[in-house]
Amino acid sequence: MNLTKLLSWLLAILGFQMLSCTGEDEYGCPYTTYKTSGTVKDENGNNIQGAKVNVKIDVITGRQDYMGGQHGDSICLDPQTASTDKKGHYETSHRDLDNYKYKKLKYEVITDKDGYTPDTIRKEVNKSDFRFKDTGDWETTATHEINIVLKKK
Fold first, then answer.
1. Distance between alpha carbon 69 and the CA centroid of its chain, in Å?
2. C-alpha span between 27 and 33 (Å, rounded)
3. Is the CB of residue 11 less than 8 Å from the CB of residue 118?
4. Any residues with CB less than 8 A from the CB of 153 and at least 6 apart, and which?
5. Strands 31-42 and 148-150
6. Could you count the other beta carbons within 10 Å of the beta carbon of residue 89?
7. Is the model's pTM score more than 0.85?
8. Domains of the chain: which residue ranges?
9. Rounded distance, CA 34 to CA 141, Å?
10. Angle at CA 78, nearest 5°, toward 74 and 79?
11. Domain 30-150 class?
């Protein structure tokens, strides 16, 4: 038995994983679920059911170069789409944005519903704008609300 197999066997017996905490559902790796929610209403304050809400997030990371200069890189996440319920409520979620060590998030929320003028909201959000809540042994939920008002055509 070579040394690599012996060490792998020994670590397995001791309960160490040979994986990092970047996977989806690994045991023992804390993660944060970022939820974006809100309501879609018309100009009169009535809830709009069945509106399509597309949430796109660009993660702006911060890094410092060897000369002390600050740089921001942008990482585009897969857009999440939701439809509003009877109360005009929608919710989307992105998992574990903490892996990116972000400085801020750039939201683009596009809402569309027949009979209404489509609307696009662009918003920058810092970590301090979220409400964090521990929801399990390893999970934290961060929520942010973006409400939308659509105008009739």
1. 28
2. 16
3. no
4. 115, 116, 117
5. parallel
6. 15
7. no
8. 30-150
9. 6
10. 105
11. mainly beta
Asked if 106 and 121 count as a contact pair (C-beta separation under 8 A), the reply is: no
| HEC assignment per residue over 56-105 | EEEEEEEEECCCCCEEEEEEECCCEEEECCCCCEEEEEEECHHHHCEEEE
Which uninterrupted H or E stretch holds 3?
helix 3-14
Tokens 């796109």 correspond to 56
In terms of Cα–Cα distance, which of 80, 76, 92, 74 is closest to 38? 92
CA angle 102, 105, 111 (to 5 degrees): 155
pLDDT confidence band for 13 (50 / 70 / 90): low
Residue-wise pLDDT for 59-93, tens only, equals: 887 766 677 776 667 888 889 999 999 999 999 99
What sign for the dihedral angle of Cα 106, 49, 89, 150? positive
Distance CA 147, CA 55 (A): 12
